[in-house]
Amino acid sequence: MVQTLTLKTCKRTEEYHDAGRIDIGEARHLFRVAAGLESPLLGETAILGQIRRAYDEARAQERLTPNINKLFQTAIHVGHRVRTETTISRGAVSYSQVTVDILSRMVPDLGNKVVSIIGVNEMTESILNFLTARGATNLILSNRSFSKAAQLASRYGAEALPLTEKQRILQLSDVVISATSAPHSIIHRADFTPSDRKMLLFDLANPKDIDDDVRYLIGKRLFNLEQIERKAKQNIEARKGAVAHCERIIEEEIAELQRWEAFRLVHSSCAPVGAQASKLGA
């Protein structure tokens, strides 16, 4: 019977033990992890899936002790409660998610638009994930290293174009998201053909990829990194306001866990000796 369950994520490796009694400090920490209160991005949701996966994998391999089983079942329940009863996970807090949220509000039907992404890095791959989840299918990916763009594009069904075809990319695009590590701007006002065609541009680079004067072209709307960062900070502050509510939920579940354990211990101690031995040997 499994007495230790290991939780591995990209940020942590933790072991939860059953030493005969539930460690309330350990339980409280796990519940905070499940709620997203211990994550670098407050209230992030991926951690709850990682906890469920660790629990399901351990349970599939071998029987868990009643304490470990109850601890992780309750942690998953806490994770669901805080995300339905509080605002801890509402509002995007990563730059990539904020960008796609703004874009989705302004262009509800992304499937009918051509979205070009310039730059291959962790942020742009995250943006690709969010875009495809929102129904974007006409995607162009470009990068100084064409091979990197082609490799990433193949994973998302996107078209890769060399950055030397920058003007063609702009002509094809309804939306441009640029996030390169270039030391200077790469998109200039002169790169656009005279047109009043509407286009949304997001510059997520520092230093800037897109010259500020592009915003003065007719039909072009430019969002820069400062605007995205400001929105992310607003959402983070809103999430911080939900922490106290999350902590109340955690304490409610801690109290319920203690009642469960007390009930189990009382009934275990009242059982006949033979019954206890039979149960432990099952």
Can you walk through the features of this model?
By secondary structure, the chain is α/β, with parallel strands linked by helices. The protein has two domains: 4-88 and 242-280, Beta Polymerase, domain 2, CATH 3.30.460; 95-229, NAD(P)-binding Rossmann-like Domain (Rossmann fold). Helices cover 50% and strands 14% of the residues. The chain contains ten helices and eight strands. The strands form two sheets. Strands 5-4-3-6-7-8 form a six-stranded parallel beta sheet, sandwiched between helices. The chain has a two-stranded antiparallel ribbon with strand order 1-2. The protein is elongated, with a radius of gyration of 25 Å. Mean pLDDT is 91; it is low at 273-282.
Topology of helices and strands:
Blueprint: E1 4-8, E2 13-17, H1 24-35, H2 46-61, H3 66-85, H4 95-106, E3 114-118, H5 122-133, E4 138-143, H6 146-156, E5 159-162, H7 166-172, E6 175-178, E7 199-203, E8 220-224, H8 225-240, H9 243-270, H10 273-280
Parallel strand pairs: 3-4, 3-6, 4-5, 6-7, 7-8
Antiparallel strand pairs: 1-2
Helix pairs in contact: 1-3, 1-9, 2-3, 3-9, 4-5
